[in-house]
């Protein structure tokens, strides 16, 4: 199958484009984290993965990761960049949906349709530009050879980066912190802020506690994207007073994309965090999909049943 990425920012600096770029920056950070964990050359870090049981293929159960989403997003952004006009690309996407709705297709079908739709690009041979060949996009593992320009997102990213800097300081500038009104921030601006805090963690003693008190919108959030990040921050800072939130989150859902991040953070944390991981897993294992159970067992160094 072949799926197109999210809305593609070309470069109009309007608020909609800024927010799209902010979401894309968050996705790019997840892709970086994933590729750092696996190594860029891992065979699953390409867009076309042969999914066949057996010696030469891959079991589909093991293929879930950020690459098809975020590297796929970069590829679709590259196609839009080749077209150079967002409205023309949007018209193409509409035609693509109309052509292939209710069908399963391959990447080759999708890309042939793209080149037929834009004959001037086909004539230029855009599918084989050195270093950006469609074949390379699909079949070579590694970091995307083209990254869309996310600079329109700076107007949303910069305040989040500056606020994170303030919270990472040894002595907090309370006045500067209180001057930033995060109540008007949308979810992905908060997500981006938490990603910055996580990168800077562990923070100086007591800062996470103060942050938690000041921003109940974050520390008491029900949104899973915020909760998964808050759990990781709590663990990386050994903030045991909120370990209950980690436990609650793992009891409340079993999605692989959230669960594994939290278990990894617990397992690389303190002895208390590791004990919490074991206790929580033994309580929640029956409600987890068998694949997720096995992935958690690998993180916790437990035997995986064949």
UniProtKB/TrEMBL annotation:
One of its GO terms (molecular function) is zinc ion binding. One of its GO terms (biological process) is proteolysis. One of its GO terms (cellular component) is extracellular space. Pfam families: Leuk-A4-hydro_C, Peptidase_M1. It comes from the Eukaryota. Its cofactor is Zn(2+). InterPro entries: ARM-type_fold, M1_LTA-4_hydro/amino_C_sf, M1_LTA4H, Peptidase_M1_C, Peptidase_M1_dom, Peptidase_M4/M1_CTD_sf. Keywords: Aminopeptidase, Hydrolase, Metal-binding, Metalloprotease, Protease, Zinc. Residues 155-300 form the Peptidase M1 leukotriene A4 hydrolase/aminopeptidase C-terminal domain. PANTHER family: AMINOPEPTIDASE B (PTHR45726:SF1), LEUKOTRIENE A-4 HYDROLASE (PTHR45726). This is AMPB Aminopeptidase. It comes from Crypturellus undulatus. The lineage of its organism: Eukaryota, Metazoa, Chordata, Craniata, Vertebrata.
């Amino acid at each position: 199958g072949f799926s197109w990425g999210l809305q593609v920012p070309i470069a109009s600096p309007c608020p909609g484009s800024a927010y799209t770029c902010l979401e894309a920056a968050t996705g790019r950070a997840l892709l970086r984290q994933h590729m750092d964990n696996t190594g860029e050359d891992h065979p699953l870090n390409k867009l076309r993965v042969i999914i066949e049981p057996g010696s030469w293929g891959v079991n589909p159960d093991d293929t879930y990761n950020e690459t098809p989403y975020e590297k796929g997003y970069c590829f679709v952004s590259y196609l839009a960049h080749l077209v150079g006009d967002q409205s023309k690309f949007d018209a193409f996407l509409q035609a693509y949906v109309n052509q292939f709705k209710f069908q399963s297709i391959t990447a080759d079908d999708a890309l042939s349709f793209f080149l037929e739709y834009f004959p001037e690009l086909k004539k230029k041979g855009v599918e084989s530009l050195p270093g950006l060949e469609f074949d390379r996009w699909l079949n070579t593992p590694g970091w995307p050879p083209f990254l869309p320009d996310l600079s329109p997102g700076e107007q949303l990213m910069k305040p989040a980066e500056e606020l994170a800097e303030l919270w990472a300081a040894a002595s907090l500038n309370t006045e500067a912190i209180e001057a930033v009104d995060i109540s008007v921030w949308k979810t992905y601006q908060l997500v981006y802020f938490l990603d910055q805090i996580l990168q800077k963690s562990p923070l100086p003693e007591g800062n996470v506690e103060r942050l938690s008190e000041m921003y109940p919108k974050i520390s008491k959030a029900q949104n899973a994207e915020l909760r998964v990040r808050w759990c990781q921050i709590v663990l990386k800072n050994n903030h045991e007073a909120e370990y209950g939130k980690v436990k609650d989150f793992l009891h409340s859902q079993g999605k692989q994309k959230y669960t594994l991040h939290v278990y990894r953070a617990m397992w690389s944390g303190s002895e208390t965090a590791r004990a919490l991981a074991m206790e929580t897993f033994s309580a929640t294992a029956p409600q987890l999909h068998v694949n997720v159970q096995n992935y958690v067992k690998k993180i916790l160094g437990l035997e995986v049943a064949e």
